[in-house]
TrEMBL record:
Residues 5-220 form the ThuA-like domain. InterPro entries: Class_I_gatase-like (IPR029062), ThuA-like (IPR029010), Trehalose_catabolism_ThuA_prok (IPR009381). It comes from the Bacteria. Gene3D superfamilies: 3.40.50.880. This is ThuA domain-containing protein.
Length: 261
């Protein structure tokens, strides 16, 4: 069985900016999916903001092992119902990869529980990405560092929770540094944030970048069955307690009554 991967793209700049359209005539999402489909262990499809329910129906997410997210200009246009659906899928065990400006996307901010802010500059400067966790599966096949000749600068401080692992750190020509490859666990789901990917530069044609994304798909995949209801908070009856107990004191809830949310 291959890893069922869905590459989600905002698909706005490709329609409105000539530079982006020339670099990615079929969209950044299609470029990434095309590269992933060269991996025998991955089957990648695409969805975009403009699709019904943004292409992220409950059925489609149930059949997605890893979801990749790229967004920038239209974070606010993503429906909150879809955001919650995506987050529940992650909590249930779906892998999730956020790329570049998806640090400000609704799903990332919801999963991080943080402002996810940073400093930035759009000057086409050189970015050098250093591997900071040798032998990490996401960095497999990558040298000690690789460079992108033109990229947007992201700088610290990065307003996210402390990650499980920092896989890459970036240095920029202007002098800033940034934690550019971070892993998290949210519920049963593996989450990876990867910084490169400004739309006016050919970042998603770079072999190293595409290699990291493919590695991250394999890393994020959880082969176990999805948790059916990851937000369930059941009221456990007294007679179902692991050890025998007797009820004592006054009660706020009746037996079997749902708790407050």
């Amino acid at each position: 069985m291959t890893i069922r991967t869905l590459v989600w793209g905002e698909n706005v700049h490709e329609q409105t900016n000539k530079t982006v359209a020339k670099l990615y005539p079929d969209g950044m999402h299609a470029c990434i999916a095309g590269a992933l489909n060269k991996d025998a262990g991955i089957t990648a499809e695409t969805a975009v903001l403009q699709d019904a329910e943004h292409g992220l129906t409950a059925e489609r997410l149930a059949n997605t092992d890893v979801l990749i997210w790229w967004g920038h200009a239209a974070h606010g246009d993503v429906d909150d119902t879809v955001v919650e659906r995506v987050c529940e899928a992650v909590w249930g065990g779906m892998g999730m990869i956020f790329l570049h400006s998806a640090h400000f996307s609704k799903p990332f901010k919801r999963l991080m529980g943080a402002p996810c802010n940073l400093t930035w500059r759009e000057a086409g400067e050189r970015e050098r990405l250093w591997v900071t966790s040798r032998n990490h599966p996401i960095a497999a096949g990558i040298d000690n560092y690789f460079e992108l000749e033109n990229e947007e600068m992201y700088g610290e401080p990065f307003g996210v929770p402390e990650p499980l692992e920092t896989v890459f750190v970036s240095w920029f020509q202007g002098g800033e540094v940034f934690r550019s490859g971070l892993t998290y666990k949210r519920g049963a789901g593996n989450v990876f944030y990867f910084r490169p990917g400004h739309e006016t530069y050919p970042t998603y044609h770079n072999e190293n970048v595409l290699k990291v994304i493919a590695n991250a798909v394999h890393w994020a995949h959880n082969p176990l069955a999805r948790v059916a209801d990851p937000t369930d908070a059941p009221n456990v009856p007294v007679d179902k307690a692991p050890e025998k107990i007797e009820e004592r004191g006054e009660k706020l809830h009746a037996a079997g009554e749902a708790g407050f949310r």
